[in-house]
Amino acid sequence: MTVAVIGATGHVGSEIVRGLLKRGEAVDALVRDANGARRMFGEPDGLKIRSTQLDDPSDVTEALKGIRTIFIAMGSVGIQGVLQRIAISVASTISSIEQVTRLSVLNASANSLGINQRAHDSIDRLASALAVPYSTIRPAIFQLSLLAAGHQVRASRTWTGLADSGRVALIDHRDVAEAGLRVLTEPALWGQHHDLTGPVPVSWPEALELLSAELGETVTFRTATVPEFLARLINAGIPAGEAELLIAREWAVLAGENDYTTDSFQQITGRSPRRLEDFLHEHRAEFA
């Protein structure tokens, strides 16, 4: 049977699609922008790009007929959160679907300071209430998030934020996708929440120490007030809702919610997660 991927053109979803095709799986990518998806993937054997009205339960139902497993990689709030809930609700009514695997976030909990974490917890509760066959991967903050510092680092050798303490074991999004592919395709891993972290927790100032070593120049962390940080985000063109998520993320980091590691990635894949130092070396040009 075919695997459906919703959120197929994002960082993790696109890696999932490519990984499935490499395994010889048939993949239906349910997307809003079919032309954009074709530009990303081309038209390889095994891939069906289906333009889908993800906010229309009847169209989602039609798209999921005959599907065995689903991978969902979308945001948790706003319209994307609504679309996730529609997809899960529809999946619960289709008998052929044996498993829904969803990209969530570390510390998904109603008690988290993070808006994203609380929203993901709400989606998990919906899946539980509907008794849909269900698993999640819950990664720490992506190493990719550091690329947001690129412009400021290039201009001033500083990066501004709220969380001058508190640590996160940042994880490479490619590792997240590798683990997600295993969870999606190996029934022994179904029905569980898999917490994924990078190898070592670091604070933002400590991450910049690693970047300084890579660049051979000192890059420092500048602590902002909340109004100043919000103004910087808005002036950078970040939508207000996303800015709110980022501020709440900083509060969660400061509170120490992310200051731990797990061995889940090692257990799932048989190897260690990628190091932050290697990511910074790979993306050196973004900061130099």
TrEMBL record:
Stored InterPro entries: Ergot_Alk_Oxidoreductase, NAD(P)-bd_dom_sf, NmrA-like
Annotated ranges, domain NmrA-like: 2-247
Pfam family, one: NmrA
Superkingdom to which the source organism belongs: Bacteria
Database matches in PANTHER family: PRESTALK A DIFFERENTIATION PROTEIN A, PTHR43162
Record's protein name: NAD-dependent epimerase/dehydratase family protein
Source organism per UniProt: Kribbella jiaozuonensis
